[in-house]
Amino acid sequence: MKIAFHAPLKPPDHPVPSGDRQMARMLIEALQLAGHEVDIASRLRSFSREASHADFSTLRLQADQEIARLRALWRQGGAPDAWFCYHPYYKSPDLIGPRLSAEFSIPYVTAESSYSSRRSHGAWKLAQDEVAAGARQAAVNICFTQRDREGLESAIPDGRYAMLSPFIDVAPFEKLERRKSGSFRLISVAMMRPGDKMDSFRMLSRALQHLVDLPWTLTVVGDGPASAEVSDAFSFLPAERLDWAGATQPGAIAGILAGADLYVWPGCGEAYGLSYLEAQAAGLPVVAQRTAGVPAVVKDGETGILTPPGDVALLAAAIRRFRDDETLLAECGERARRFVFEERSLPAAAQRLGGIFDHYVRSKP
């Protein structure tokens, strides 16, 4: 099938790295591996940081221009066989795909669409209504977590839903050789920005204050506008305990993870977190909270330890447990690597996507 791909939050070729950009790219690769031809139909970003009727009106006008452009293009060269929208939600609704799909009678598909009942009033309601209408129209809404599916189903019980677990390209991890540094090395990979990310950094800092009696070091991979606040949060630690790796190219992550022992990231508000999968692919167990979408990517008690939300002491205790039990560390690391390679790889996702399209999209008249 010829698929028109659109990611209204951030296009796949956007210059700023993020989990959203990475997932968009992975979806395109998975669709191609499943035998489809994928074209980025539009790079229009419909993201709004704050609720604003004026901003939404501006976005509608921009979307109208994109619709006119694509309509002319499709009338001349032929329409695609389906429209695929990645991650429409109240801050970045798809204002293009549903209208063009209806006009050209092609299936509309969403992936990682989400619905929040708290946003069904005020200025956000306009965008939220667009998301709901798109999910209702969709031939299938592909959900990455049970949490997202339940949110959509509660608002749109007559919608069509399928599950696709979050996944990564495991190729960079296939021939990875672990490197022991002598000290017990913790590692976190995250953008440094206000909000949930900063909350996680602060929680990790508080947890590590319970563990200063143990010998360990922490590598932090990432950068961003909150870098000064992150540095302040860990100012209680001597310099020799911290390795600020900064922002890195995606291809370098596997090698950096190979030099660590344990992946630690509280995961406040994480949709799921592809970094958890990358760490496990490198053979690292995970310590995080049992919150938001984290349980969708970490098997509690098998590939890591998930602690109750907000409990700093138990988060610290989980880190201590891995530090004190080399057998547990090794066994969880082996299970983590096997889990990602067998269940969360790009080929596995492509096979699942192919099945979803065969059932929900190809079968449509």
Automatic annotation (TrEMBL):
Gene3D superfamilies listed in its UniProt record: Glycogen Phosphorylase B
Keywords (A to Z) from UniProt: Transferase
InterPro entries recorded: Glycosyltransferase_grp1 (IPR050194)
Pfam family membership, one: Glyco_trans_1_4
Molecular function (Gene Ontology), one example: hexosyltransferase activity
PANTHER family: SULFOQUINOVOSYL TRANSFERASE SQD2
Official protein name in the record: Glycosyl transferase
